[in-house]
Amino acid sequence: MNGPRFNEFIQSQKVRVIDHEGENLGVMFTREAIEQAAEHGLDLVEVSPNADPPVAKFLDVGKFKYEAQKKANLARKSQKTQEIKEIKMRPNIDDHDYDTKMKKVNDFIGEGDKVKITLRFRGRELSHGQLGMNLLKRVQDDVAEIAKIEAYPRMEGRQMLMVLAPK
C-alpha cells in the first residue's frame, strides 16, 4: 500500500488523535478512534507514524492523498535539473571566436548548468600541449568570479577536458 496508513491499516494499539477541527483528543485505542472518525464521515489517517504513540487525524483519505500528490508535483516542477553543456574549442582559437564561446559559457553557468570545455588537438598541435593549458588557464581566469573548477584540465587522447560548475 502506498501513501499513509488509515483506518484498519494502522498497526499500533493506541494513537494520539487530532479531530477534524485540529483539536487534540489525546491518546486512545485505535479501534475507538476509527469509530469516532466514522461518526463524522471521515477516516482515521496516520499523519506521523514514527511518533510514540503515532499521531492520527480525522481526514478524508482521498482528499489527503490528492493534496500530497499535488504538493509533490509542484516540488518536482519547481526543481532545476543540472545539465552538463559542452563547449568545444581548438588550441589556436582566435580572439573573437574565444569571446563568442565565453559568452555561451557565461550563459550556461548563469542558468545553473555545468560546462565541460573540450580542447581538440589535431596533427602537430598535440606536441604543443602548453598552448591548450594556457587557453584553459585563460578560461579559468575569465570565469573565476561566477564558476569554480570541478574537474581540472586533463588530457584524454587527443583532447584536453575541464569541467566548470556554478559557484
How do the helices and strands line up, and which of them pair or pack?
Elements lengths: L13 E5 L5 E6 H10 L3 E6 L6 E5 L1 H18 L5 E6 L5 H16 L3 E7 L8 H14 L4 E10 L2 E8 L1
Parallel strand pairs: 1-4, 5-6
Antiparallel strand pairs: 1-2, 3-4, 6-8, 7-8
Account of the protein in words:
Helices cover 35% and strands 32% of the residues. With 167 residues, the chain is an alpha/beta fold. The longest helix is centred in the middle third of the chain and has 18 residues, at 61-78. The chain has a four-stranded mixed beta sheet with strand order 2-1-4-3. The protein has two domains: 7-77, Roll (Ubiquitin-like (UB roll)); 84-166, Translation Initiation Factor IF3, CATH 3.30.110. The protein has helices at residues 30-39, 61-78, 95-110, 129-142, and strands at residues 14-18, 24-29, 43-48, 55-59, 84-89, 114-120, 147-156, 159-166. It is rod-shaped, with a radius of gyration of 30 Å.
